[in-house]
Design goal:
This is Divalent metal cation transporter MntH. By secondary structure, this protein is mainly alpha-helical. Helices cover 78% and strands 0% of the residues. It is built from 22 helices and no strands. The N and C termini lie far apart (54 Å).
Length: 453
């Protein structure tokens, strides 16, 4: 029986789709042979950083800080639960890519017809566009706050990010991973400094990680909690991770090397998502320590920027330096997310509809899909931060729709012995994955209804 299942898995691998995922980076990062644990971990580290970016993008910021401003440390438990969910989903995504040699888009396309594949591509593309809109807005607002560049011009400037990414790609994928890691470290240091300046009560922070019934009983707290979950678990990250883990040069036919690649991908992912968890906790702690009681006034990124230098709100520690550091972190976050969003757009376009076009054209199309709605909004309703940041609310709707489309097949594929062989999910992981798929789908439906309500 075991041999039959192994043969079935081997047959699947030999009959899968032709074409590598992200061919320009696939199998390009060397792994040292016969090296120690830490040296190999360093070689495998990198994809986790690009994935972690999606869990700390500008779309999270207002929700997390406003959560702290309105409810103190109450919602830290929600960030903890969301981060644990993210770790499980990203592990499954990385494992799918390593074991099958397919990214999630390719795997779904292989199991669906052409028409359904196009429908799923459109839904996923809308989710990526929604994510990219948040990054465009974050970068444009940061440029406006730092250099007084008009928002419309700032949005147009973000198109140049695509050509920056093309230039970085020429230097090698390892360089992109390094730059992203530096930007993440910048965000971490800035918010750690601002939280220390806010002098939060450590015992209150620890108490916030214990789930409390008030999260469910208070409608406002529940809505913010759902917003945190919705902004944390990003569908595009599942496509991204399943592709970029294949950049490493491990033997695709060697069982032991596959096991090693899966192990180090899990460690890399969990370490980087822990950093994202810490940053999200710092955001909420910043809101609780500095703005508790003023949450109703903190509705935009600009209002948060101004509040940090307002002594009437944050007291004696108020300083233009805090505001500037906040805007610098916002710009770093926007740039990070731009890189990963553009890569994901390429992955789903090639995986779902096998569209072949020059790399620069694919990436330019992906960025324009995000920029055009923001430009239209600015032209119709005025060049103000309140106008563009309202878009952030509605982008979450697209993400809510796309999440089940990504989670459901990921759970099915990674639980299949035919696709995964001995690497298929354990019974416990399968049960957890199905439970999360059902619960998160229900929560996202509720979030959509609440948003329009």
């Amino acid at each position: 029986m075991v041999n039959e299942k192994q043969q079935e898995h081997k047959h699947f691998l030999t009959t899968k789709l032709n074409g590598l995922s992200l061919p320009e980076i696939n199998n390009t990062v060397s792994i040292p042979k016969n090296a120690g644990f830490w040296k190999k971990l360093l070689a495998y580290s990198g994809p986790g950083a690009l994935v972690a970016v999606g869990y700390m993008d500008p779309g999270n910021w207002v929700t997390s800080i406003a959560g702290g401003a309105q409810f103190g440390y109450l919602l830290l438990s929600v960030i903890l639960i969301s981060s644990l969910i993210a770790m499980l989903l990203q592990y499954m995504s990385a494992k799918l890519g390593i074991v099958t040699g397919l990214d999630l888009a390719q795997a779904i396309r292989m199991r669906t017809g052409k028409k359904l594949g196009i429908v799923l591509w459109v839904i996923t593309e809308l989710a990526i566009m929604a994510t990219d809109i948040a990054e465009v807005i974050g970068s444009a607002v940061a440029l406006n706050l730092l250099f007084r560049i008009p928002l419309l011009l700032g949005v147009l400037i973000t198109v140049l990010d695509v050509f920056l990414l093309l230039m970085l790609t020429k230097l090698g994928f390892r360089k992109i991973e390094g730059i992203v890691s530096v930007l993440i470290a910048t965000i971490l240091v800035i918010f750690l400094y601002e939280v220390i300046m806010g002098q939060p009560v450590f015992s209150d922070i620890l108490a916030g990680f214990v789930p409390h019934k008030q999260v469910v009983e208070n409608k406002s707290a529940l809505f913010l909690a759902l917003g945190i979950v919705g902004a944390t678990v990003m569908p595009h990250n599942l496509y991204l991770h399943s592709s970029i883990v294949q950049a490493r040069q491990y033997d695709r036919e060697n069982r032991e090397e596959l096991k090693e690649a899966v192990k180090f991908a899990r460690i890399d992912s969990n370490l980087q998502l822990t950093v994202a968890f810490v940053i999200n906790c710092l955001l909420l702690t910043l809101g609780a320590a500095l703005f508790h009681g003023n949450g109703d006034h903190l509705t935009t990124l600009g209002s948060l920027y101004r509040a940090l230098s307002d002594k009437a709100i944050v007291g004696a520690i108020a300083s233009p330096v805090l505001s500037i550091l906040f805007a610098v972190a916002l710009l770093a976050s926007g740039q990070n997310s731009t890189i990963t969003g553009t890569l994901t757009g390429q992955i789903v376009m090639e995986g779902y509809i096998k569209l072949s076009m020059p790399v620069w054209a694919r990436r330019l199309v992906t960025r324009l899909l995000a920029v055009i709605p923001v430009i239209i909004c600015l032209l119709l309703f005025g060049d103000s931060e309140e106008v563009v940041e309202k878009l952030l609310i509605y982008t979450q709707v697209f993400l809510s729709i796309a999440l089940p489309v990504s989670m459901l097949p990921l759970t099915i594929f990674t639980s299949s012995r035919k696709m995964m062989g001995e690497f298929k999910n354990s019974l416990l992981v399968t049960i957890l994955a199905w439970a999360l798929t059902i619960v998160l789908t229900g929560l996202n439906v509720y979030l959509i209804m609440s948003t329009f309500g």
